[in-house]
Amino acid sequence: MANYHYQVPENLVRSLKFFDGCDAATCEACCKVAADFLRTGINAKMYTPAANRLNTTVAKLRTATEALMLLLTDASKHQLSTDAVSTALSESSLERNLCVALSAVYADIGEHLVATLNSMVPRLLPEYSGVQWRIDVEFASRALFHFCKPSITLQLKVKTSDGCENQLLLSIDAAALKRLVAELERALATLRSREYRKLMNRV
């Protein structure tokens, strides 16, 4: 798991201020509920009795619990180590009891969440297998304003993750091809930019 510097999003910090003043047992119980919801799905019936015990509204408890789930999911999405999560929580302004409980829960289910998120990512995209191309040029037509009108046809072969091979037939004229090449060159230039590299380091 990664150890890069992570900051708890400010919107989650605001929602988790709900736990300010809560004792360790309450923070631990709510974190475990959030973890259970991530494992098995949300059980809305649990909110009402829990809200009554905490002397708060269902809406406030739901918002706080969803913030816990989002924080655990966000940390898993970035594949953070337990130490990285503990550091991020300690640097935030969250209640210490909550930080301890969250760190313990993440240590317990972090790897499970990472595996679950990875399983939700689409399988491998189709791979390039081969290509055939043909260029057709029309000469000396009275309907043409210019001397020639080239067009290009590509037969692209791709192989899916299950081994099946598909063929795609693509046709384009010279002007559109030139615009496409220009767009691809701009996209490649963007990929090489410093801003893009900084963005990818956070994804």
What attributes characterize this protein structure?
203 residues, alpha+beta, Nuclear Transport Factor 2, Chain: A, 2 domains, three-stranded antiparallel sheet, 3 strands
Structure description:
By secondary structure, this protein is of the alpha+beta class. The protein has 2 domains: 10-120, no CATH class; 127-200, Roll (Nuclear Transport Factor 2, Chain: A), CATH 3.10.450. It contains 8 helices and 3 strands; from the N terminus they run ααααααβββαα. α2 (24-40) packs across α4 and α5 packs across α6. The two termini are 14 Å apart.
Spell the H/E element sequence.
HHHHHHEEEHH
Supply the number of helical segments. 8
Radius of gyration of CA atoms, rounded to a whole number: 27 Å
Strand content: 15-25%
Average pLDDT rating: 82
**What is the overall silhouette?**
elongated
Number of domains: 2
Query: What is the makeup of the main sheet?
Result: 3 strands, antiparallel
Low-confidence stretches: none
**What is the terminal separation in angstroms?**
14 Å
Major sheet: arrangement of strands: 1-2-3
Kindly state the percentage of residues in helix: 55-70%
Counting helices, strands and paired strands, the structural category is alpha+beta
β-strand number: 3
SSE blueprint:
Layout: H1 10-16, H2 24-40, H3 47-54, H4 58-77, H5 82-91, H6 96-120, E1 127-139, E2 148-159, E3 165-173, H7 174-191, H8 194-200
Antiparallel strand pairs: 1-2, 2-3
Helix pairs in contact: 1-4, 2-4, 2-6, 3-4, 4-6, 5-6
